[in-house]
Amino acid sequence: AYGQKSFAEAQARQNLVLAASRDGREGSIAINQDADLFLGRLKKGEKLIHEAREGRGLWLQVTEGALSANGKDLKAGDGLALEKESQLVLFATDAGSFLLFDLA
User: pTM for this one?
Assistant: First the structure.
């Protein structure tokens, strides 16, 4: 299957937008994996907290700018894997965008 959709309007209103999920909830594209893919964008100085669901892992991929993720400094191109964490705390040290994967 193939899906294509613009999330630009949703990203203008929200810092974190669900783009793909197993069940297509919240207007996301349905995928055949037990994973959620979020598109994120933060302005310099903004903070975002993502609550992790129990038993799942998170992968953060910084695509632009610079972020602090649970106290670790990251820049464009950097990735971070998190397991057994109850939450991901992001702080934009510079305006930035990122992909956040919530995986089984």
Answer: 0.92
